[in-house]
């Protein structure tokens, strides 16, 4: 009997009995100005918790989540075994040139701005330009996220305005609240669907991007890098973290 799942059905902590054909290691980058809520958004998605007292991210922080995912956008339906790395980047100006080092190895991008901060929205255009210049393609999969939807009285960025902006770039837009857990999972599924559709249509993309293949991703354990298959990548990322230490000391 064929599988029947609701749209975006996710099963976490699944036990695998064998290597599945559709196993994917995916790397998503969260980009945006400092203070827009990238860390809170990712924490809410991974842990289901909100902490509003977090200090600004310094350099890069990585969260991971493994689950099975079924997308109705694929025909026929496929069960995808996903290991998702969520890279939380620093939004401060001094880290932006370092952050771009990681663009090319990522397969999806979350462009986050603060609905109560006009400048954070205006800077989304700059983040898009950086992606077009540094990502694995000039047309990478990305979504725009307007965060802090719960702060209705403090909102300064109009929804229609953002939608018109997103349409100019043919990018999907969604509004979230990390505090109240509004549209957090939905935003991830929106990007995940786009990425899976691209990969399902372009099998060569999996061969070209080492982060998609199993056992080729970067794993950080207590701040140390391991599990590399590519020594050049290891050197590049080691250099990055050395630069971060210099910036922060």
UniProtKB/TrEMBL annotation:
Keywords: GTP-binding, Nucleotide-binding. It comes from the Eukaryota. It holds the Pfam family Ras. One of its GO terms (molecular function) is GTP binding. The keyword GTP-binding applies. InterPro entries: P-loop_NTPase, Rab, Small_GTP-bd, Small_GTPase. This is Uncharacterized protein. It comes from Didymodactylos carnosus.
């Amino acid at each position: 009997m064929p599988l029947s799942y609701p749209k975006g059905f996710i099963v976490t902590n699944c036990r695998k009995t064998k290597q599945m054909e559709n196993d994917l290691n995916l790397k998503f980058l969260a980009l945006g100005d400092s203070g827009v809520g990238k860390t809170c958004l990712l924490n809410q998605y991974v842990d289901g918790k909100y902490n509003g007292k977090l200090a600004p991210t310094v350099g890069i922080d990585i969260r991971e989540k493994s689950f099975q995912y079924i997308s109705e956008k694929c025909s026929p339906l496929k069960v995808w075994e996903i290991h998702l790395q969520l890279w939380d980047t620093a939004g401060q100006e001094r880290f932006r040139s370092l952050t771009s080092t990681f663009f090319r190895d990522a397969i999806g991008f979350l462009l986050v701005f603060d609905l109560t901060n006009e400048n954070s929205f205006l800077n989304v255009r700059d983040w898009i330009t950086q992606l077009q210049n540094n990502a694995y393609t000039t047309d990478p999969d990305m979504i725009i996220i307007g965060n802090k939807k719960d702060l209705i009285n403090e909102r300064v960025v109009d929804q229609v305005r953002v939608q018109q902006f997103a349409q100019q770039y043919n990018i999907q837009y969604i509004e979230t609240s990390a505090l109240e857990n509004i549209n957090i999972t939905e935003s991830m599924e929106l990007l995940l669907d786009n990425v899976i559709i691209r990969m399902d249509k372009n099998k060569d993309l999996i061969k070209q991007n080492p982060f998609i293949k199993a056992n080729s991703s970067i794993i950080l354990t207590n701040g140390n890098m391991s599990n590399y298959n590519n020594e050049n990548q290891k050197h590049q990322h080691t250099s990055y973290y050395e630069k971060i230490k210099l910036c922060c000391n």
